[in-house]
Amino acid sequence: MGTILASSIISDARIETLDEDSSSYRISDAEYLRMLNNAQRFIVMHVPKANVVNSAWQLAAGILQSIPTGCIELIGIDFNMGTNGTTQGAPIRIIDKDDLDLLKPDWTTVTAAATVQLYMFNDEDPSHFLVYPPQPSSSQGYVRGPCSKTPTDIATTGTAISLDDIYQSPLYHIICFYAYAGETDSYSAQKAMAHYNAAVTEIGRKDLVMKSYSPNQKQTQAQGA
User: For the whole model, what pTM was predicted?
Assistant: First the structure.
């Protein structure tokens, strides 16, 4: 969790959008908080490391497992944590399912055990993973590892942001994007795009930068023909 208050980022956004007169705010603090919470989720969705937790969770019976409740993306599984969730156990290694299928074709039907030796993760099914050996029908084991979690919503302007302070600038740009996007004039549309592009560039997702049309593009193409 950061130390920068939501009110600080909202104040900066009000200055940028010329919405500083408290007697006639165009956008309420409650709406800005909604924008800020959406901005936090936007960042974590594209930068999972922005909100990582590392805690133990209990597995289910069998081989198919779900990532912890509230997690967006599994980053890894590191250790067994016993059947009580607090006993540090053996490390766990990741393996490709095809490799385990080849090395041990009967791996899905071997004797169940609470201690995990290997786990498999499919990028096409990010909410689940597989474990070897299968977990027993009762007294399943706990494992521990980092995962990206949905950030806690900010309820009041006097509350600190849920993400680290290094995300202050992209949070500012994203809520300015939301604010300007709510306007209908062309100037606001340009400002909205500029703030969006600044935000995604700062978080390292240049592939998300909006492409805007300019007559200069056609000119450049003609010159290169």
Answer: 0.77
